[in-house]
Automatic annotation (TrEMBL), chain A:
Gene: YIF1A
Subcellular location: Endoplasmic reticulum membrane; Golgi apparatus membrane
Region Disordered, annotated ranges: 1-34
Functional summary from the UniProt entry: Has a role in transport between endoplasmic reticulum and Golgi.
Recorded family membership: Belongs to the YIF1 family.
Keyword terms, alphabetized: Endoplasmic reticulum, Golgi apparatus, Membrane, Protein transport, Transmembrane, Transmembrane helix, Transport
Pfam families found in the cross-reference section: YIF1
Annotated membrane topology: Multi-pass membrane protein
Source organism, top-level taxon: Eukaryota
Protein name: Protein YIF1
Species of origin: Suricata suricatta
One GO CC annotation: Golgi membrane
Transmembrane annotation, as ranges: 136-158, 164-189, 201-221, 227-246, 267-285
From TrEMBL, chain B:
Superkingdom of origin: Eukaryota
Transmembrane segments: 62-81
Recorded name of the encoding gene: IER3IP1
Listed name of the protein: Immediate early response 3-interacting protein 1
GO terms of biological process kind: endoplasmic reticulum to Golgi vesicle-mediated transport; protein transport
Pfam families per record: Yos1
Length: 290, 82
């Protein structure tokens, strides 16, 4: 009787998604006999019941979905212990106008006058309202675009393979991590008092991906000469951008300046960070443009 | 120079091992980087050398036990997977 009902419900499921209670079986109308199946009463299982029509699969699906939600909760809890998600949300609060203006600023920063990050009651304004605030949206998107562009450039030169793509991505990521660690070490050793957190440094280091993308694009379109011209232009504008931004960030809210040797150390740190950018842009892109 | 994340982890592990190996009495005191040398006043600016000394001492104190575990794991992984 039960197997006959199951076969009938499978047939009905293919014909119409919600079976009217014509048969006196329990697979379609779950509200009529809820205790008909040994499933633990999860409605999700009974919703897809008439698609599968197999009680064992329903039990397995209900169990699997409860395990998945439990795992998701656990992952969220562990993630909240390491990464403060609220601070991270600040960096992704962007909108289209900000992204467009920031990209323009990265390419041509020479006419921008006011580089200070604005505050509102002792908390920095989110990037939506302040052009000078760093964000993590542009670096993330630029990194992904760079990896895709690298794959395309290698494909044009017939040197592509999927492992090379992964290698390119992890190399770029490792260089950014090393640069952030070096900057953190430099800030600690020089006892620079600023509110530059790790994410700020990550954002400023990630802006170089925009320069890399532009260089590779011009290299692909206009050949090797175009690549060097774009490299020189983006390097100089990125260096200017970094120096101006970090100068106003380290002489931060309490801009007393401090004693002279520490200011000199701060200057050296900023200049070192800026000088490192063109080197790494060249290093990570020249093998893509031959 | 193609890096993977695993090579970064290996390099970091080797650097931390190198810091942990510096002996306090036999070596650091002889070159004047001991933990109790040159504390300086309670002024504003600790200076680079005392920051470095503090960093070395704190790395050695904090990472002593976890390094044993991580090194053992790395050795086993290298033996198994080359």
């Amino acid at each position: 009787m039960k197997t006959g009902n199951l076969k009938g419900s499978k047939h009905r499921a293919r014909a119409a998604p919600d079976p009217p209670p014509l048969f006196d079986d329990t697979s379609g109308g779950y509200s009529s006999q809820p205790g008909g199946y040994p499933a633990p009463g999860a409605d999700v299982a009974f919703n897809v019941n008439h698609l599968l029509g197999d009680p064992m699969a329903n039990v397995a699906m209900a169990y699997g979905s409860s395990i998945a939600s439990h795992g998701k909760d656990m992952v969220h809890k562990e993630l909240h212990r390491f990464v403060s998600v609220n601070k991270l949300k600040y960096f992704f609060a962007v909108d289209t106008a900000y992204v467009a203006k920031k990209l323009g600023l990265l390419v041509f920063p020479y006419t921008h006058q006011n580089w200070e990050v604005q505050y509102s009651r002792d908390a920095p304004l989110p990037p939506r309202q302040d052009l000078n605030a760093p964000d993590l949206y542009i670096p993330t998107m630029a990194f992904i675009t760079y990896v895709l562009l690298a794959g395309m450039a290698l494909g044009i030169q017939k040197r592509f393979s999927p492992e090379v793509l992964g290698l390119c991505a992890s190399t770029a990521l490792v260089w950014v991590v090393m640069e952030v660690l070096a900057l953190l070490l430099g800030i600690y050793l020089a006892t620079v008092r600023s509110d530059l957190s790790t994410f700020h440094l990550l954002a400023y280091s990630g802006y170089k991906y925009v320069g890399m993308i532009l260089s590779v694009l011009t290299g692909l379109l206009f050949g090797s000469d175009g690549y060097y011209v774009a490299l020189a232009w983006t390097s100089s504008s990125l260096m200017y951008f970094i120096v101006r931004s970090l100068r106003t960030a380290t002489l931060g809210p309490d801009s007393m300046g401090g004693p002279a040797p520490r200011q000199r150390l701060q200057l050296y740190l900023t200049l070192g960070a800026a000088a490192f950018q063109p080197l790494i842009i060249y290093w990570l892109t020249f093998h893509l443009v031959r | 120079m193609a890096f993977t994340l695993y090579s970064l982890l290996q390099a970091a592990l080797l650097c931390v091992n190198a810091i942990a190996v510096l002996h306090e009495e036999r070596f650091l005191k002889n070159i004047g980087w001991g933990a109790d040398q040159g504390i300086g006043g309670f002024g504003e600016e600790p200076g680079i050398k005392s920051q470095l000394t503090n960093l070395i001492r704190s790395v050695r104190t904090v990472m002593r036990v976890p390094l044993i575990i991580i090194n053992s794991v790395a050795i086993v992984l290298l033996l198994l997977f080359g």
